[in-house]
Design a protein that fits this description.
This is IS200/IS605 family transposase. By secondary structure, the chain is an alpha+beta fold. The protein has a single domain, classed as Alpha-Beta Plaits. It contains four helices and six strands, in the order βββαββααβα. The strands form two sheets. It has a four-stranded antiparallel beta sheet, covered by helices on one side. A hairpin with a 2-residue loop joins β1 and β2. It is elongated and about 60 Å long.
Length: 134
């Protein structure tokens, strides 16, 4: 039980989230090497920012990530970094392909995202624990 929590300074935490990012207009662009490039780029960002990628996989038009991060970080900032930097790097490397798909703007990801926290115990267990306090 001790090892499932991260410890830094005076905080103890275990923050994991399942994230799904979609390509803009659900275009099937995450294939033919672009998928591997995106995964390498996100792994690089994770290393640089001290996030842990537990699992990551693509389908043709979306990406799933199971991500662990520090309690001092804002999740929306993590998503912004991932989307902004990967979009920039993709346009540098795959400009010829992307200009045929997105001819007006340098975009790649849709505006939103899906995120779901992943806990070690169920909500019912936590509710019971809280109810039994005091």
């Amino acid at each position: 039980m001790q090892n499932r929590y991260n410890r830094r300074n005076r905080r103890k935490y275990n923050l994991k989230v399942h994230v799904v990012l979609e390509t803009k207009y659900r275009k099937a662009l995450l294939q033919d090497g672009i998928d591997d490039f995106v995964k390498r780029a996100i792994s690089y960002l994770a290393d640089q920012n001290d996030w842990t990628i537990i699992a990551m996989e693509t389908d043709k038009d979306h990406l799933h990530i199971l991500l662990e991060y520090d309690a001092t970080e804002r999740f929306c900032d993590i998503i912004s970094i991932i989307k902004q930097r990967t979009t920039r790097w993709l346009w540098i490397r795959y400009r010829n392909i992307l200009t045929k798909q997105y001819w007006k703007k340098h975009i790649f990801w849709s505006d939103g995202y899906f995120a779901c926290s992943v806990g070690e115990v169920s909500s019912a267990t936590i509710e019971k624990y809280i109810a039994e306090q005091g």
